[in-house]
C-alpha cells in the first residue's frame, strides 16, 4: 500500500489551449493569428524533485540540466537518437517526435515539459501539452518555425524587418525581386543608396544554421538559386514540373553588425534581458559572441527590449526567448527569434550572475528569475564556438580566463562540439583571450 508520501501529486486540470490556428499536419496556409494575445498559461508550482521533460537531448538540453540540477529538479529527455549527449545528465527516453503515443507517455511522467531545439515537431509539443504544461507555449514554437509568421509578429510588436516578399513558385521570383528593388523596397529603406542589389531566399520552414537559404545577387541568378533550394527539399509538393516551396525573399541587408537579445519571462510576467550580445557568423553559423554589445544608443536598445517584452507577453511565454537582429547604421532590423536558450547566450554561463540556462529552468519551473547582469568584476565576456574537428582542449584550458564547455559529440564538418567563454574586466581583455582561443583553432 502507498504511504501518503508516495501518492502521486494531482496534475493541473487540462487547459483550454488556443491551438486551432495550427493544423495537425502543420500545413502552410494555416497561420497563428497575430492580432490576439494568448492567455497566460496556468502556473507550474515548483517542488524539489520535480521532473523537467525536455523534447530533444542535444547540448542545449545537457546545459539546461547542468544548470537546473542544483535547483533540485530532475531531467528526462525525449529524442530519437539513443546516443544523444544529454543522456549523461538525465534519463533518456528514445522515441520519434511523430509518435503521438510515445510523446504523450513521456509527458505524463513529467511535471513540466520544454524543448531544446526549435525544429521540434509542433504537434509533439501540443501532444505533450495535453498531459502537462509545456513552456514556452507551443504557439511560440509554431510562430518561430515559420519565417513569414515570425516577421508579422515582429512587425506587430514594433520591430522593423528587412523588406521581404512571400514566394512559392519559380514563376513569382522575378516580380518579387523587382519589387524589392523598386519603389516598394526602396521606400522602406533608410539611406537606401547604400543597399547593394541582391536578396536572400529562405524557406519559411526547416532551415537553420544557414541551411535552406540561398543568396541571389542578380535577376539572372534566380533560376539557378531556385534549383539549389529545390535540391535541398526533394519532397516539396509540385505544380506542373516545378516544386512549390513556401519561401520569403528578403533584401540582402548591408548590416554593420549582428546582435541578439536574450530575454527571459517568468510565469508571473516578470521579465528581464541580458546585456545585448554582438555576434559574428560565418557561412550562416555563429562563430563568436561578445557581450555587452557596443555602439547602440540607449533609445534603440530600449525599443528592442520593449519589443521583446511585448512579444513574450503576447505569447503568454515562460522561459528564454532569443531575438537575432541586424544593426544597420545604428538601427535594428529583426531577423529571427528562437523560443529557447540560444547559442549567442552561452556566454552567460560564465559572464552573468544567472546563466540563460538556469533562468530558463527557473522560469518554466515557477521559480523567480535570477539577476541577468554581468558578474561583479566582469566588464565583458567573449564566446568562441568550437566547430568541426577535435579542438585543442588542453591548450585552451591553459588560458587563465578561458572556460571550456565541451558537449561530448563526435567531430564532424560544421558541427558545434563545444564553446569557450572568456571573461575579463574590459572588452579589450576578454577579446584578447578569445583571440588566443581562435588562434589555437587556426581561425
Ligand atoms: P538566418 O538563418 O536567418 O539566421 O541567417 C543566418 C545568417 O545569414 C545571418 O546570421 C546573417 O549573417 C546572414 N543573413 C541572413 N539573412 C540575411 C539578409 N537578409 N541579409 C544579409 N545577411 C543575411
Structural summary, described in words:
It is a single chain. The model is unreliable at 1-30 (pLDDT under 50). This protein has three domains: 51-134, Rossmann fold (3-Layer(aba) Sandwich); 163-251, ATP-grasp fold, A domain (Dna Ligase, domain 1); 257-441, ATP-grasp fold, B domain (D-amino Acid Aminotransferase, Chain A, domain 1, 2-Layer Sandwich). Helix content is 27%, strand content 24%. It has 443 residues and is α+β, with helices and mostly antiparallel strands. Adenosine monophosphate (AMP) binds next to strand 17.
What labels describe this entry?
20 strands, 13 helices, 27% helix, Dna Ligase, domain 1, 3 domains, alpha+beta, Rossmann fold, D-amino Acid Aminotransferase, Chain A, domain 1, binds adenosine monophosphate, 443 residues
Level-1 CATH class name of the largest domain: Alpha Beta
Largest sheet: 9 strands, antiparallel
Radius of gyration: 22 Å
Bound molecules: adenosine monophosphate
Q: Kindly state the mean pLDDT as a whole number?
A: 89
As a percent range, the share of strand residues is 15-25%
Which structural class matches the secondary elements?
A: alpha+beta
CATH-level-4 superfamily name of the largest domain: ATP-grasp fold, B domain
User: So what's the overall shape?
Assistant: globular
Helix content: 25-40%
Strands, helices and their partners?
Blueprint (H helix, E strand, L loop, with lengths): L50 E5 L3 H10 L5 E6 L11 E4 L5 H9 L3 E4 L6 H8 L3 E2 L3 H7 L2 H10 L7 E4 L5 H9 L1 H5 L11 E5 L9 E4 L5 H11 L5 E2 L2 E2 L3 E5 L5 E9 L5 E3 L3 E6 L2 E7 L6 H17 L4 E10 L2 E8 L9 H4 L4 H10 L14 E8 L5 H5 L4 E5 L9 E9 L2 H14 L3
Parallel strand pairs: 1-2, 1-4, 2-3, 4-5
Antiparallel strand pairs: 6-11, 7-8, 7-11, 9-10, 12-13, 12-14, 12-16, 14-15, 15-18, 16-17, 18-20, 19-20
Helix pairs in contact: 1-11, 2-3, 3-4
The site of adenosine monophosphate has 13 residues, from strand 17.
Amino acid at each position: 500500500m502507498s504511504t501518503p508520501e508516495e501518492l502521486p501529486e494531482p496534475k493541473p486540470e487540462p487547459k483550454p489551449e488556443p491551438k486551432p490556428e495550427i493544423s495537425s499536419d502543420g500545413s502552410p496556409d494555416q497561420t497563428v493569428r497575430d492580432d490576439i494575445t494568448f492567455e497566460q498559461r496556468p502556473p507550474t508550482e515548483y517542488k524539489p524533485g520535480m521532473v523537467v521533460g525536455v523534447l530533444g537531448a542535444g547540448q542545449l538540453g545537457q546545459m539546461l540540466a547542468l544548470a537546473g540540477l542544483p535547483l533540485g529538479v530532475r531531467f528526462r529527455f525525449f529524442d530519437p537518437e539513443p546516443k544523444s549527449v544529454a543522456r549523461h545528465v538525465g534519463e533518456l527516453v528514445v522515441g520519434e517526435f511523430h509518435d503521438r503515443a510515445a510523446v504523450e507517455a513521456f509527458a505524463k511522467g513529467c511535471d513540466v515539459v520544454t524543448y531544446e531545439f526549435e525544429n521540434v515537431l509542433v504537434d509533439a509539443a501540443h501532444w505533450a501539452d495535453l498531459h502537462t504544461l509545456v513552456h514556452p507555449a507551443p504557439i511560440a514554437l509554431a510562430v518561430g518555425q515559420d519565417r513569414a509568421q515570425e516577421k508579422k509578429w515582429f512587425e506587430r510588436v514594433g520591430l522593423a524587418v528587412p523588406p521581404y516578399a512571400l514566394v512559392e513558385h519559380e514563376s513569382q521570383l522575378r516580380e518579387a525581386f523587382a519589387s524589392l528593388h523598386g519603389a516598394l523596397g526602396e521606400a522602406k529603406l533608410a539611406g537606401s543608396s547604400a543597399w547593394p542589389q541582391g536578396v536572400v531566399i529562405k524557406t519559411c520552414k526547416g532551415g537553420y544554421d544557414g541551411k535552406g537559404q540561398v543568396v541571389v545577387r542578380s535577376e539572372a541568378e534566380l533560376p539557378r538559386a531556385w534549383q539549389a533550394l529545390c535540391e535541398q527539399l526533394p519532397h516539396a509538393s509540385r505544380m506542373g514540373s516545378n516544386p512549390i516551396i513556401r519561401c520569403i525573399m528578403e533584401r540582402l541587408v548591408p548590416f554593420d553588425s549582428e546582435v541578439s537579445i536574450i530575454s527571459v519571462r517568468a510565469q508571473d510576467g516578470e521579465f528581464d534581458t541580458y546585456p545585448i550580445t554582438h555576434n559574428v557568423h560565418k557561412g550562416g553559423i555563429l562563430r563568436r559572441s561578445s557581450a555587452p554589445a557596443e555602439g547602440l544608443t540607449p533609445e534603440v536598445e530600449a525599443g528592442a527590449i520593449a519589443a521583446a517584452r511585448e512579444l513574450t507577453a503576447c505569447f503568454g511565454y515562460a522561459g528564454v526567448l532569443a531575438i537575432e537582429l541586424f544593426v544597420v547604421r545604428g538601427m535594428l532590423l529583426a531577423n529571427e527569434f528562437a523560443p529557447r536558450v540560444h547559442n549567442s547566450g552561452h556566454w552567460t554561463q560564465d559572464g552573468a550572475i544567472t546563466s540563460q540556462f538556469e533562468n530558463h529552468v527557473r522560469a518554466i519551473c515557477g521559480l523567480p528569475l535570477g539577476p541577468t547582469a554581468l558578474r561583479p568584476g566582469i566588464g565583458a565576456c567573449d564566446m568562441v564556438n568550437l566547430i568541426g574537428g577535435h579542438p585543442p582542449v588542453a591548450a585552451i584550458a591553459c588560458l587563465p580566463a578561458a572556460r571550456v564547455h565541451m558537449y561530448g559529440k563526435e567531430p564532424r564538418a560544421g558541427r558545434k562540439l563545444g564553446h569557450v567563454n572568456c571573461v575579463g574586466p574590459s572588452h579589450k581583455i576578454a577579446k584578447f583571450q578569445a583571440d588566443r582561443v581562435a588562434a589555437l583553432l587556426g581561425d
